[in-house]
Amino acid sequence: MIIKKCLLCLILVTVCWASSETCLSESRMNNEQNNLVSFDDFEWLVGFWEGEAFGGHFEEVWLPESGGSMSGIFKLITNDSVSFYEIFTITFDSTDPVLRVKHFNADLTGWEEKDEVVTFPFISAGDGEIRFDGLTYRKRSDKTMQIILKIKNSDGKVTENIIDCQKR
After folding, report:
1. Average pLDDT, stretch 3-9?
2. Model's pTM, two decimal places?
3. First to last CA, the chain
């Protein structure tokens, strides 16, 4: 019986390891297919964007790459008051870009713990579309884009929010 349990554990560990290696291989393949993504692929995000979402008006500003990162801020205004802010960065972990976000209430108290961020792993970029796991930026024209954001609700269901943006 003990030998069967040990064998089962070994099989499970092997399957989990093989599964994680498959995910890593897919990520590497995405990177190779995207011709080693660079900040040039994100350049079209730079600027002042605005639109309507989450029951209010938002403003999102992306700064150009400097110091090995792109950064920006999001502000949601509802009923003439700030509802919340986000600060976000795109940096490269080894060869893959990663988007990190921190959320703040109007008084700048954080949603996440001090050392925690919300991370969106990179999937692909090209043809006016940047895809992270759970978040996609889709260029519609030089002055318009869509943000597709997947949010997990308290009941565990994932909803897809499509946010239209205009460049100022």
Report:
1. 32
2. 0.78
3. 69
